Amino acid sequence: MSSLISNSSRRMDPGSSPARRLIEPLGLLCGVAAAEAVRQGAARPLAGGALAYTLARLIDGAQASLVAASALPADWADVAELLAAAPPEWAGLGPAPVVMGIVNVTPDSFSDGGDYADPVHAVAGGQAMIAAGAGVLDIGGESTRPGSAPVTPAEEQARILPVIRGLRDAGVPISVDTRHAATMAAALDAGASIVNDVSALAHDPAAAALVAARGVPVVLMHMRGTPATMGSLATYDDPAVEVALELAERVAAAVAAGIARERIVVDPGIGFAKRVHHSLRVLNGLALLANLGCRILVGVSRKSFIAGVVEVPPPKRRVPGSLAAALFALAHGASVLRVHDVAETVQAVRVWQALAESAG
Fold it and tell me: What predicted TM-score, i.e. pTM, was given to this entire model?
């Protein structure tokens, strides 16, 4: 415990992020154990009560300190109240963990480039994911791996629109993974009902107004720069705190553009402008995003940070690491998991839920 207190009391660089009061929930509990700890006053509820925290790192500008959750100072009650609230319903998907299946209609995505480049294979792949338990499909036509070349909206639309049309009646919501307002509009017209933007609506000046006008749910992901430049921008003091603060700015911009907060999900962007140790810290501090009052989506599937930990280079051999990281994310506040391996993830999530609900 002493090392945790020492680490949490260090000063952050005031210039690294805008001043904002945040609580980082620590000592997390889930399921029956969380409910019992809250009932006995040993913990505070997190995100509606499925989770609870026993320790709180209080972050106020450049200052950070650690206290027991049961001894939270009175002037932090407003922040604790926000953390306790259940995230709003989103995209009609319900409160339970939701598995989002990834359908990359590209020849060059980092983990499955070419698998679904043909629309017929992409539609069949999406249908198989739904049969395996995916609650939503995320369809993209532009690779955003580090160093990838941009794709024109016309090419992007040529890739994804036939797939969206082929899956729009398959029984689950369709998300379009794009940075381009024109592609967002075309995809929504074709049958998509969710926008997932890796730039958090910052890439295309017309994107925020379009999402606001259409009234659709949106995923705002954290990234610095572009896929071509983000590697040079992976410099942080405390990655988890800075990601939370930078996402808070994007949420505020979206709300100012007319997008209702309850339609926003935030994604910490694991691997985007983040080296291995940054991604690990962001996942450890994932519960910080509960300060934003939005649901949390996490995409760890087959990411390079897994290879950085266990040295298994080929992406398709990273399934065990992907499952471990996904369950860790659920235990730290995530409610949507964006994955390639749907059947394996659904099974792991169901077992994790059963264990959490039978605790104590």
Answer: 0.91
